[in-house]
Design brief:
Elements (H helix, E strand, L loop, with lengths): L7 E10 L2 E6 L6 E4 L2 H17 L5 H5 L14 E8 L9 E4 L6 H15 L9
Antiparallel strand pairs: 1-2, 1-4, 2-3, 4-5
């Protein structure tokens, strides 16, 4: 049987801005990270989330009140949503981000994945269209 670890999931709104990125948590007001490159912003968002969670009362209900309940749909071309997975110790070094793509035909999945990759790739790695 595979080893499993309990995880909590939080919805994150990722926005590419003219100066970098902003990541905020859908169910956590005022929890936001800003950075110049995407990877940097993700790390800052993990630290913000860990700090927020560490200050919650030590009961399951307080924690689950902020976990994922729904994932908003985005029509904005520079915004996408992801899921941040958190272990019970709230260690930001164990957090991971999963990108979400809706079920669709393979061509649509490829198109959306390419759009997502274009939003998070550093300018030096982008391919000219």
């Amino acid at each position: 049987m595979p080893k499993t670890t309990r995880r909590y999931y939080f919805a994150a709104r990722n926005e590419k801005t003219p100066h970098g990125y902003t990541i905020s948590f859908v169910n956590i007001p005022h929890a936001q990270a800003v950075g110049v490159i995407y990877e940097e912003t993700v790390y800052y968002s993990y630290r913000v989330l860990a700090d927020f969670l560490a200050h919650l009362p030590a009961d399951e209900a307080a924690l689950t009140a902020y976990t994922l309940t729904q994932l908003p749909a985005s029509e904005e071309p520079n915004v996408f949503y992801s899921l941040v997975s958190v272990t019970p110790d709230f260690n930001p070094h164990k957090m991971t981000t999963d990108f979400t793509l809706p079920q669709a035909p393979p061509a649509e999945i490829r198109r959306r994945a390419a759009q997502l990759a274009g939003l998070i790739a550093p300018a030096s790695h982008r391919i000219a269209q």
